[in-house]
Request: fold
Amino acid sequence: MDRVVVHQVSKKFKIGSTKKASALTQFISLFSGKEPKKTIKVLEEISFSVAAGEILGVIGKNGSGKSTLLRIIAGIYHTTEGSIETHGKIVSLVNLHLAMYPQLTMRDNIYFLASVFGLTDREISGRFNHIATFSGLEEFIHTKIYQFSEGMKQRLVFSIAIHCDPQILLLDEIFEVGDKEFRFKSAEKIKGLVRDGATVLLVSHSLDLVGKYCDRVIWMDGGRIRAQGPAHKIIAEYDPLAGN
Amino acid sequence: MKQFQRILKLSIAIAKAEIKAKNEGSYLGIFWYLLNPVLTLLLLWAIFFPRLGQHIHHYPLYLLLGIILFNFFQQATTEATRIIRRNARLVKSINFPLESLVGAVILKTLFSHLFEIILFIIVALFLNVPIAGILFYPLILILFCLFCLGACFLLSSLTIYLIDLENIWGFIVRLIWFATPIFYAIEGQTRLFFINLFNPMYYFITITRDILIYSRPPHGWMIAAAICYSVLFVLIGSRVFHKLKIRFSEMI
Reply:
């Protein structure tokens, strides 16, 4: 069964552009703060599907449309053209660590984010210890989030997400920060979820991680799919061009 | 129905987090909910009682109730103009019913409103004014919340497309504050009365004063107008919000 079907999806954004603005427009913008806009195509005719029990890696340079693609699948952005079909509960981790309340404790943020992911208070209470233990941050339950490092925040949001019954898990550069041990533990957990029928879309710059855990890989370039196929093959094509 | 329950639960969760975050680090914490209306009451009473309040029966309560209800409207609508942008990171990270952000604004305001109502009861008891009418207050409050919810839906969505509205709204609220009979009585002022027929706050404040302070039934036409404004605002507001929310995540 396909959990995610992306069919001929294109996405356009209006972005600020002052490059070719007239002198008058530039003068007005000093007062109004309103800048001229231009339309850019961020995604162009993207088509693929991901089956239940599959991990799909998405690689590409910054600005190639990876995060936008995840947001469209999550239903955060709407498509300009084309259609998206999803089957199952979507849990998205696209810069989620930035959405926590910094002045609240880890405990409060667990309750808050898990509620947004659709869990009831009783369910959260039942899973609270698992979330805290998996994140490895049990001793910081009553610590406020602004005192956490970026890595700690990522660990926490990942731990919350995987305990919210995801059937489609969208991960955007979640393992770029954080230690090796947690990365390994998380990857094992993802494998477990996938064995139970979940689908994972993993956006990452870490080719080792993508190569090790993803069944298939999509290589995004300038808003288009440049190549897709078995992980080792696509990474081998991408690596010499990646420049890192 | 299921979606409504989800929105309500999420609104409660967001409101809880927002209330905690607001009071975090504050020395007086939730006491500010009482201090603000008390200080405003004392200030307005000192300024307006000698000239405008002497012919108004139970002027301190008249003034306090006006302040409390207007505070609700002002707090909720002002917050609504910022709520989507303030939660931009959450909106861009997770797909969740955005209506719950607006719902949370109302719940959060309702929380502080309860403290203000307790303050009103204390002052009424102190002045020996019977407050049996408070039993009917929940009915008015439901209507008032619906009206404010509609206004918040409108403002929160329109501000995303017209950012200047956030600043303009501060001025408009001040205008409504002066136009609404909060610290003065409207009787005998035909022009002001005519203007206030188009001011929903006038109906809610007058009905509440009639019931809570003067223990008399409000005029039927006033209740009808309050119901009409509530239904109209919530219908139009939710419709506009539903239509515009599609592009929120892209515009913030």
